[in-house]
Amino acid sequence: MTRNPYVGTQKRTFQAAFIHEMETNYGFLKSRRMLNLLAQDIQQLVDEFYPVQEHLRPGWILFTGTKADNHKARPGQQACEFTSVTIPWPLLTPEDFDWMTTQPDTKEKRRQLLIQRTVRLIEHGQQHPQGPVLLTLADLASLLGMTPASVSNLLKEARQKTGKSLPTKGYFFDQGMRPTHKAQIIALYEQGLDEVEIARISSHAQSSV
């Protein structure tokens, strides 16, 4: 059976975040069934008192990512057990329209635009006041209308061109096969940067590079 790469994206819901909060910080209710029922009731109250906002910047999308709290993922940990954060993301911007109206419509130019969008989304999450907020490859694939494998190749190219780590959730929490920090540091050396600049870009101590 083919593994569903979007399972983590689908499970980052309000109810899952509520259950995680109750289990992590309160612990007075041990029954998962009762927690599910309580989460459903809370969800109904939220929907009633806080309806979906109608004011969202054109081209932006409301999407749930994962907060980059500094801990390693443990074996068997489910995607919904991480801290979820729902924020607006700049999916389509005026700069995109400028690019599309001034650049030739070629495969190479369309790929460059996808790289720009990918970098923008990841860096927006990194710099957000509620974050850093991380996206998975499947999240990015959903937002960009691509496959996770295609996004992975796109990210590899983006990292090589920018010299930035551009961390996804898996990259940050060391899950699965992702580009290593060592590969990033080597790429920066090949660009001719000195150790001080490499340490700053890669968020490592200078002695580690």
TrEMBL record:
Database matches in InterPro entries: DUF1670
Name under which the protein is recorded: Uncharacterized protein
Organism: Candidatus Entotheonella gemina
